[in-house]
Design goal:
- By secondary structure, the protein is of the alpha+beta class.
- It has five domains: 2-229, P-loop containing nucleotide triphosphate hydrolases (Rossmann fold), CATH 3.40.50.300; 241-323, Elongation Factor Tu (Ef-tu), domain 3, CATH 2.40.30; 337-410, Alpha-Beta Plaits, CATH 3.30.70.870; 413-521 and 617-648, Ribosomal Protein S5, domain 2 (2-Layer Sandwich), CATH 3.30.230.10; 525-607, Alpha-Beta Plaits (2-Layer Sandwich).
- Helices cover 30% and strands 31% of the residues.
- The chain contains 19 helices and 35 strands.
- The strands form eight sheets. The protein has a seven-stranded mixed sheet, sandwiched between helices. Strands 23, 27, 29, 30, 31, 32 and 33 form a seven-stranded mixed sheet that branches.
- A hairpin with a 2-residue loop joins β34 and β35.
- α7 packs across α8 (176-185) and α13 packs across α14.
- It is globular, with a radius of gyration of 28 Å.
- This is Small GTP-binding protein.
- It comes from Aquibacillus albus.
- It holds the Pfam family GTP_EFTU.
- Keywords: Antibiotic resistance, GTP-binding, Nucleotide-binding, Protein biosynthesis.
């Protein structure tokens, strides 16, 4: 039985040490490494050893009893959350490590929310019970209060003899049929055990155990219980389907596509289909590799439930479905900051761009962007620690010296009311016309497309071409040049010429139609917001509320319990991104803050931001809202506000 498990935690909770113990007790490694000794098996990169944190989601396998486990050790620092989320999407089960001393911390709640979003059955291991200040009961209460009331302590004795009465009743309360059986016939160990496994898989029960990874207390018992209560059912007889969860390049520059097989089998030299709408590709797999940390072994065939890497796929992206699985995964951990890459003037900037595009394939959240006019490279990041690590990583990997400008906010733009945009592209021997309806969509919904064009007006192939061009890149808004979002685009109609229309013509016409529509619209600037949860002593509640108001945030009625107050709400990232430092200062480290990305909402200081950015919509080299018409064998430009008259004249 194949089981993919992930180890997740707030940084320094003991996640990597726990992973080392699992690998040691299952004979995958002969010597237990330690983070502080810089010899942990899965923290193999120089940067991870130097900083003592996990940066990359590395994997290995081990066997225990009748199961083969594929273990992923994930980053615990918030700046590397996108790497963690990409790993979560392929997990069968998660193990969340919580420190018995520090308890539930801000990032622990982020981890929990992602696991719930992806519906991953989860076990908790309360670690560091040997440390001074450890309080297991308080941590369990915090898990139940801040994450799930369905957390329940489990012991090995519950599985081998009769379950204790509290667990029996806990399960019966969550299953009507079980409760009815209990009332009529009483307790049956086998039925209750199977029900426990089922409720875990349905995210109705979350087992909790405890111990010390460093002192090797409770780890073996945890593994025994975990193995007994987890069950997967992969089918090798179905057509192959899989999901891409990681892209890497080996020491020779060979592109590696890491895949979770969800059904069927895959062999070397088999063709594999992947890609989005209208971009389906099929390429042959040239190698299959099973990775164990930095090392790997080549195999001829992989089976459903396994994690592996392939060579031979040139353009598969993280999140892509493969084979019978067509849909692409969606991710929540979205960077809200961007930074300019500062390259040594003696080095060719285009070579630096090529290397950053390699990094972009491996970490698509970087969103590497090339500004042709300014000859600048920009990247999106989660925070300053990520920039520090990236600077070191680029130097070590590519021998490229770079630095980064101070991070800035990533803004977006949308419209407030429906418009129709028209684009006409007709230089000599070219012809295309596109009519698009653009209307506001639900906040944080992105861009959607609808086709209302009749095949009598435009061939289906050309209709698909227009759709493809609209989604091939982000589009610049008129206020700041930021990406357009939260709109529904409907293709109303279009025109082509039997002889003179080529594919690129529809790209020009579609972009001009979109831009012309934006010119007529009421445009709105959006900025990223945090959802926050702040816990402080009651006497500091007034100070926190005042700070939230000054930051243009909003908050709900505070919840007080004992000497503590919990305040939740939303605030702009721009005004709130440093607040964790301020909070730690005036609470002497006793206050806690949990920040998650809440989405994009209207900018609190739109005019100020527009003025500061200084975007000139008429000087954007990638866009024009004008149309091009042809007369007397020569093309001529018609401004956006007069183009419709020419089309309909």
């Amino acid at each position: 039985m194949h089981k993919t498990i992930g180890i997740l935690a707030h940084v320094d909770a003991g996640k990597t040490t726990f992973s080392e113990q699992l690998l040691y007790h299952t004979s995958r490694i002969k010597k237990r490494g330690r983070v502080d000794h810089k010899d942990a098996f899965l923290d193999s990169h120089t940067i991870e050893k130097q900083r003592g944190i996990t940066v990359f989601a590395d994997q290995t396998t081990f066997t225990y009893k009748q199961s083969t486990y594929h273990l992923i050790d994930t980053p615990g620092h918030v700046d590397f959350s996108p790497e963690m989320e990409r790993a979560i999407q392929v997990m069968d089960y998660a193990i969340v490590i919580v420190s018995a001393v520090e308890g539930v911390q801000g990032h622990t709640e982020t981890v929990w929310q992602l696991l719930q979003k992806h519906r991953i059955p989860t076990f908790f291991f309360i670690n560091k019970i040997d440390r001074v200040g450890a309080n297991m009961e308080k941590v369990l209460a915090d898990i139940r209060k801040h994450m799930t009331e369905d957390a329940f302590p489990i012991t090995g004795a519950n599985l081998e003899g009769n379950m204790d009465e509290a667990l029996v009743e806990f399960l019966a309360e969550r299953d009507e049929q079980l409760l009815e059986m209990y009332m009529e016939k009483g307790y049956d160990q086998e039925i209750w055990l199977n029900n426990l496994i089922d409720q875990i898989n349905r995210n109705q029960v979350f087992p909790v155990m405890h111990g010390s990874a460093l002192q090797d207390i409770g780890v073996v018992e945890f593994l025994h219980v975990f193995d007994s209560l987890t069950l997967t059912n992969y089918n090798n007889q179905e057509a192959f389907s899989g999901r891409v969860y990681k892209i890497r390049h080996d020491e020779n520059g060979t592109r590696l596509t890491f895949i979770k097989a969800l059904a069927g089998t895959l062999s070397v030299r088999e063709p594999l289909a992947y890609g989005a709408f209208n971009q389906q590709m099929e390429e042959k797999v040239t190698q299959l590799r099973m990775y164990h940390g930095e090392k790997y072994e080549q195999v001829e065939t992989v089976h459903a439930g396994e994690l592996f890497a392939v060579t031979g796929l040139t353009d598969a992206q993280v999140g892509d479905g493969l084979g019978a699985l067509k849909e692409k995964a969606a991710f929540e951990m979205i960077p809200t900051l961007k930074s300019k890459v500062i390259v040594d003037p003696s080095l060719p900037v285009k070579e630096a761009l090529r290397l950053f595009q390699i990094l972009d394939a491996e970490d698509p959240s970087l969103h590497v962007h090339w500004d042709e006019r300014l000859q600048d490279i920009h990247i999106h990041v989660m925070g300053t620690v990520q920039l520090e690590v990236l600077e070191q990583y680029v130097k070590e990997r590519f021998d490229l010296s770079v630095s980064f400008a101070d991070p800035e906010i990533v803004y977006k733009e949308t419209i407030e009311a429906p418009v129709v945009g028209y684009g006409h592209f007709e230089p000599l021997k070219h012809y295309a016309e596109v009519h698009l309806k653009i209307e506001p969509a639900e906040r944080n919904s992105g861009i959607s497309f609808e086709n209302a064009c009749h095949a009598d007006d435009l061939s289906v192939g050309n209709q698909n071409l227009i759709r493809h061009h609209l989604f091939e890149r982000e589009h610049h808004g008129l206020l700041t040049g930021s990406a357009v979002t939260d709109v529904k685009i409907t293709l109303l109609t279009g025109r082509a010429h039997e002889k003179h229309t080529s594919g690129g013509d529809f790209r020009e016409a579609a972009f001009r139609a979109l831009r012309q529509g934006l010119e007529k619209a009421n445009n709105l600037l959006l900025e990223p917001y945090y959802q926050f949860k702040i816990r402080v002593e009651i006497e500091l509640m007034g100070r926190v509320i005042s700070d939230i108001q000054q930051a243009n945030g909003t908050f709900e009625t505070p919840n007080t319990e004992g000497e503590k107050a919990t305040i939740t709400g939303t605030a702009p990232v721009a005004t709130f991104k440093q607040y964790s430092v301020d909070l730690a200062s005036f609470t002497q480290g006793k206050g806690s803050i949990h920040l998650t990305f809440a989405g994009y909402f209207p900018c609190h200081n739109q005019e100020e931001v527009i003025e500061r950015i200084g975007y000139n919509k008429d000087a954007d080299p990638e866009y024009s809202s004008s149309s091009i018409f042809c007369a007397k064998g020569k093309g001529y430009t018609v401004p956006w506000d007069k183009a419709e008259a020419y089309m309909h004249g």
